[in-house]
Amino acid sequence: MDLVESELLEIKKSLIDNVLAYLDTGIFENRTNVAYVQAYSKVLELADQDENGKYLYDYYKNIINNYTEKVVKKELLQLRGLELLKKLAFRWQNHKMLVYWMRKIFYYLDRYYIKNSNLPILFLAGVTIFKVQVFDQIRNALRNALIDQINSERNGGYIDINTIKETLLCFTQLGCDKFTIEKGKDNEGDRLLWTGSPSLIIYHEEFEKAFLEKSKEFYISKSQQWITSMSCPEYLHAANQAFVNEERRLQQYLDPSTKDPLMKMVVDELVVNNAKIVSEMPGTGCEDMLKHDKRDELKLMFSIFRKHEPSLNNITAKLSFYVETRGALIVNDQKLHEDAIEFTKRLLIFKAEIDGMIEYSFENHSLFQRCRDMSFQNFMNKCPYSAQYIASYCDHEMKKGLKGVSEQDTESRLNSLIKLFVCLHDRDVFIRYYTRFLAKRLLDETSVSDEAEQSMISKLKVECGHNIVSKISNMYQDKALSEQIMKDFKTQSHKGQPDGILLNVQVLRSGCWPEQTQDPCNLPNELKNCFYKFQLFYQNKHQGRNLTILSVYGNCEIGTLFCRKPFTCIVNPYQASIILLFNSTNSLTLTQIKEATRLSDNTLKSNLIPFFNPKQRLFTKQSSGKTINDDEMINLNLEFNCASLKISFLPKKVKKTEVANNEDEKAVENERKYILDSVIVRISKGRKQIKHQELITEVIRQVTHFKPQPPMIKGQIESLIQREFLARDEKDKTLYIYLP
Predict the structure, then answer these.
(1) 381: burial class by Cβ within 10 Å (0-12, 13-18, 19+)?
(2) Is the sign of the CA dihedral 561, 566, 569, 570 positive or negative?
(3) Which of 60, 303, 438, 523 sits 20 to 30 Å CA-CA off 189?
(4) Are residues 126 and 183 in the same domain?
(5) Least confident interval from 7-21, 58-72, 655-669
(6) Residues 713, 628 share a domain
């Protein structure tokens, strides 16, 4: 054994002492491969004898232990705070270097002796000494110093990031049991590289647990301080910066495993616990941001509250109230009730504003889209005229609004209308009015764009299904068939001009077009003869079909022969029936005109009034204004003159959309009953047996183009029971049975 000691003493003097001196001075004397090879060879010779293995292993540990205890431990125990962290980082790097060199000298032990002795490998034995002698003695001081440094940085102080990073690296590396220390290169040049699977037991137990607790205390205090001293936007900016800083710390020196618990804690303290208070800050909170359209601030609030999805409800609650409050101002404005076009324009402008906010500030998040849609539904459907007014606006767009508009802008405007349409509960009412207006446009040929018409129909089919808008498709079919019929009519001997009158007829199938109430009218013989000849032609081609003249539709062009120059009067069939009476006389009383045309008072007067327009006065009367007495004489203005040769006397359409009359309401109600009947029967037939509440829920889910109320559904269920489509179970009255 004396020989072993002497040989080891020689190794210590030639190499080990130089390594130890280098750790303190930075100067490595006699750093040659010859010295290393000689030392390794001596250990190899000594280790070949089995009885020397244990002694050599203990000697390896004693060298490291003595240096660590007498130099490193003694030094570190006297330090605190940042100085302790700096020195620890320095000594930990040195200790890994010491273990690396010692292991190189005694490497033969790892290859043979330790394999068969069930002892820790040289790397692990050397690192364990540092843990026991140094780390375990100063771990509390280390932890406190680290947390103090991090909190100092949170308060705006400067810290040595590399020192913090190396110190925390010590926590993770000391927990490893399988690793190697090798010489290699990185961005800083030659250095020792630690490779192996990290073990975070020490990091979690000795640092992370306390770090999270202290961080929680820090943010509890900070959040309360911010709430009492800052406005809502200032709090949001401070919170956002806190999230950015914590993410940076995770990238710079904290272990990635800390991310989830740390960020969850920060979210809990800055968002979850304070979202309601922050969003409701008087004068600067969410309500103020919405009111003054502060979209950037809303975007910031959204990005922060989004870290905890339920906290977004604090924003949606304010958004819902804001939308419904502003929307109510529109739908309750009595002036707008007088103007369907302006009413819908205001809705479109408001919808575009909110859509822009949802897109920019809330990134089109599904929660905010649902909130917007529900809010629009809530206030729009409180107005009984919304569906009619929007349909009237669509009619205005198709006839005038889209004239000269690019294809892209047309699509955008139609999409905006569809967005309003989907918010309606009474979609069937909209379809009813839209179909009625479309029929008028098709027959009068007043649409500015067939492409826009088809695009709108396609969008309605997407939202409602083909069956709901099937009448519209049938109307277009009739339009195409009518064009072919007129081509055939023009092949007749009169070439489509019976009695010299150019005739253009639209043949409409009954049931495919909306029913229009019209006053009975005694058409003049000139028109009757034309229609009679067309009727003979049509019935010759389609036997068994009857034609009925719809005087409420169509226009006539009638020329004047009594004026100095020829004028062309554009009138409707009712007006044509009136002015053609003056071919046989120059004066008639209102009563005489009424008897001749058989028009009602309102229809007659509304169609007569345009002829008294001072700018284009075709008739004269004694009374002023729009009043016409029954016995008042109406005279043909033989001095008639006008700047334009083609003059329209068509009655102007009143801007206000007519509110649905009792007949319309009854028709809608009956149609809804038929729909409910079919849906209830279809569901019951598929299920055979179904519970009452389940049936109600399923009907509401399947009926999409109006919102059926439970009492209405119950009424139809009772009706179906009476008609023996359904029956109640004798034992369970809430169970319905389908009767085939």
Answers:
(1) middle
(2) positive
(3) 60
(4) yes
(5) 655-669
(6) no
H-type helices in 78-231, by residue range? 81-105, 107-108, 122-130, 136-154, 161-174, 201-203, 209-229
User: Coil, helix or strand for 688?
Assistant: coil
List Cα–Cα distances, 370 to 286, 320, 358, 390, 708, in angstroms: 18, 10, 11, 21, 20
Domain assignment of residue 503, yes or no: no
- The CATH number assigned to the domain holding 702 equals 1.10.10.10
The stretch 566-575 carries a mean pLDDT of 90
Placement of tokens 């088809």 in the chain:
454
Which pair of tokens denotes residue 430?
């909209």
The answer to whether the beta carbons of residues 640 and 618 sit under 8 Å apart is yes
Radius of gyration, CA atoms only, the chain: 46
**What are the phi and psi torsion angles at 660 (to 5°)?**
-55, 130
- At residue 235 the predicted structure's pLDDT band, cuts being 50, 70 and 90, is very high
454, 482, 510 - which closes a domain: 482
Interatomic CA distance for residues 495 and 551, integer angstroms: 24
Give the domain extent around 377: 309-482
The CATH number of residue 444's host domain is: 1.20.1310.10
Element containing residue 277 per DSSP (H, E)? helix 275-279
Pairwise CA distance, residues 165 & 260, whole Å: 19
Q: Give the domain-ending residue among 156, 180, 199.
A: 199
pLDDT for residue 663 = 67
Our count of domains for the chain comes to 4
Q: Give the number of other Cβ atoms within 10 Å of residue 609's Cβ.
A: 17
Rounded CA-CA distance 721/155 in Å is 75
In whole angstroms, what is the distance from residue 241 CA to residue 230 CA? 14
- Summarize the confidence of residues 295-317 as an average pLDDT: 95
- Residue for token digits 């800052």? 230
In a domain, 427, yes or no: yes
- Cβ neighbors of 732 (< 8 A, separation 6 or more) are none
C-alpha span between 518 and 521 (Å, rounded): 9
> Do 146 and 73 sit in the same domain of this protein?
yes
CB atoms within 10 A of CB 177: 14
Residues 371, 401, single domain; the answer is yes
In a domain, 277, yes or no: no
Is 676 found in the same domain as 642? no
Residue 11 has, within 13 A of its CA and on its CB side, a CA count of 26
Q: Is residue 465 part of a domain?
A: yes
Rounded CA gap, 317 and 667, in Å? 38
Name the residue among 225, 260, 219, 258 with its Cα closest to residue 242. Answer: 219
C-alpha distances out from residue 348 to 327, 354, 377, 425, 557, Å: 11, 10, 14, 17, 38
689 DSSP β-pair partners: 737
Q: Residue 544: its pLDDT value, please? A: 78
Choice among 45-59, 99-113, 423-437 with the minimum mean pLDDT: 45-59
Q: How far apart are CA 228 and CA 115, in angstroms?
A: 65
Give buried/exposed letters for 65-96 (b at 16+ CB in 10 A, else e).
bebbeeebbeebeebeebebbbbbbebbbbbb
Asked if 193 contacts 184 with a C-beta cutoff of 8 angstroms, the reply is yes
389 token code pair: 């007014």
